[in-house]
Amino acid sequence: MDYLEELFSLKNKTALVTGGATGIGRMAAAALVQVGATVLIASRKGDECKKTAKEINALGGKGNAVGFAGDVGSEDGVNRLALDVMERTDKLDILINNAGVTWGAPFDEFPYGAWGKVMDVNVTGLFALTQKLLPMLKSSSSIEDPSRVINLGSVMGTAYIGDGAYSYSASKAAVHHLTKILANELAGEFITINAFAPGPFQSKMTAFATTTDEQVENVGKGVPLGRIGAPDDIGGATIYLCSKAGSYVTGAILPLDGGIHTISRVGLFSKQ
Fold it and tell me: Is 240 among the residues known to form the active site?
C-alpha cells in the first residue's frame, strides 16, 4: 500500500453504525465502506437499513454494507442488537453510536415525557450498547491499533442553543461528557472514544429546515463558513478517527459545525 492508503485504509475492519439508514449515520457508513470496511447498519426500521446498505454497495467501495433492524431505545432492544451483532460477526473494530431522537416544543409547553424518551435513546442506549459490545471491541484492540468508538453529540450540546429542543440539547451535552469519561476509563483497554458535535446537515431530524434549496441557503447564512454540512464533511472525519491516522486521538469532541461553536454574542470589546 502507498502512504495514503496505509494511513486511511480500513480494509478488514468491521464496524457497526446505529441509526445508519439516513442522515449522518448513512454518511459515516458510506465513507467506511468506500475505504474497505464491512459495515453493519442498524436502526428501528430494518427495511430502510437494507435499502441503504444496497444503495451504498452500489457505489462500488472497497468494503460492503449489511442492513438489519436494531433498537437502542430500551434495555431489551440493546440486548437484542448486541446479540444480533455477535451472531453476524466474530469481530468488531468500530462502533458508531449515531442513533438519536429529538423533541421540540416551546418552554412553557415542553412535556415531561419528552425527557425520558430522548435520554433513553441518546444517552442510556449509547452507554448500554457500548457496554454490551465492549468485549468485542477489546478483543480487536491493540496498543498500535486501538478499537474505535464515535458518539454522536451536537453543537447544541456545546453552544447554549435551546431552540425548543431542551431535552435533545441536554442529552448531547451528556454525550460529550460521557465521551470524555469513557475515553479516560477505556484508554487502558486500547479503545479510543471520541464524539462528533455536528452543526446543520441534511437529515430527517433537520428536514423541517433543510428540505429545499432555499431553506439550505437560509440556514447556511447563520454558519460562519456560510454553508451547511456536506456528506464528505462527515465522511472525512469518520475515516480519520477510525483509521491509522486517528489512532492517537481520544476524548475529543470534534466540532463539525462550520464554526458555530466559536460564535460569541457578547462582543465585549467590539461595537454592538
Answer: no
